[in-house]
Amino acid sequence: MKHESDFRIAIAGLGAIGKVIATKLDNGSIPGCRLSAVCGRDPARTADFIASLSTAVPSVALGELVEHADIVVECAPARLVREIVEPVVMAGKKVIVLSVGALLEHPDLLDKRNFGQGGQIMVPTGAVLGLDAVTAAAEGKIQSVRMISRKPPIGFKGAPFLVENNIDIENLDKPLKLFDGTAREAAKGFPANLNVSVALSLAGIGPDQTFLEVWADTTVTRNTHSIEVVSDAAILHMTIENIPSENPKTGRITAQSVIAMLRKLSAPVRVGT
């Protein structure tokens, strides 16, 4: 049952992730939260989606989402992150950011001096794992963080790094290492693929000290990330194999991660750091 006191959640972007989250909110699967507005790229498809909901909500422009929400969930292309995030935090509200790599392109968005009282950027675990352990380790001293990401070649289609370096992955017959560098560099070259590395870097020792390899791997069917963190409190070895969503760039668990974050807002017991 939905109540007026529930958190009002607006969704920016109705792709593979946004539609799943919006549907869960609409059918009452997230106690304490209700869908309040959406913004989709295609007006006709957005109207069709709203018509499929049990309770109609308004379709509004990105900059207007803040007027309809307590929390805005960003599920949009990275180039739209400023347009979504800035008005929300300036209004003293909360925004859940999935295109976290784009925050590195707009460092002022991370400056709390630009936030209204109560404003907050929330980054879900998404398609990576162990961010709670990395955050805890960062309370001490982390010596190194390294990640290896492997995806089926189709998952990298259209990535700026491939276009700029004229790398053809259409007919690979064996794994190909595409990139070896920092999380900051990866965010520029693979804005739709490697938000996981930026989330890891923000939890740990920053985007210039977090290193990763990126592979277009013909031997895998799942988006796979292996992480090693060496700290004075623990040595962490973590691997996750994500089943892709209808968008091969994104794992199914990404939407579920946002849903879990929203569920915690009203949960009587919260597990995890």
Q: How would you describe the overall organization of this protein?
A:
- This protein is globular.
- 26% of the residues lie in helices and 24% in strands.
- The chain has a 5-stranded parallel sheet with strand order 2-1-3-4-5, with helices on both faces.
- It is of the alpha/beta class.
- The protein has helices at 16-26, 43-52, 81-90, 131-137, 160-164, 183-189, 195-203, 252-264, and strands at 7-12, 33-39, 71-74, 94-97, 120-122, 142-151, 176-182, 210-216, 223-231, 235-242.
Task: For the structure shown, list the relevant keywords.
single chain, 10 strands, 2 domains, 8 helices, Rossmann fold, Dihydrodipicolinate Reductase, domain 2, five-stranded mixed beta sheet, alpha/beta, 273 residues, five-stranded parallel beta sheet
Write a short abstract of this structure.
This protein has 273 residues and is an alpha/beta fold.
CATH homologous superfamily heading of the largest domain = NAD(P)-binding Rossmann-like Domain
- Share of residues in helices: 25-40%
**In what order do the strands lie side by side in the largest sheet?**
2-1-3-4-5
Number of contiguous helices: 8
SSE topology string = EHEHEHEEHEHEHHEEEH
* Count of the domains: 2
Rg for CA atoms:
19 Å
- What is the class of the largest domain in the CATH system? Alpha Beta
What's the end-to-end separation, in Å? 29 Å
Briefly note the structural class of the backbone: alpha/beta
Return the CATH topology of the largest domain: Rossmann fold
Could you list the spans in which at least 5 consecutive residues all have pLDDT below 50? Answer: none
Kindly state the number of beta strands: 10
Largest sheet: 5 strands, parallel
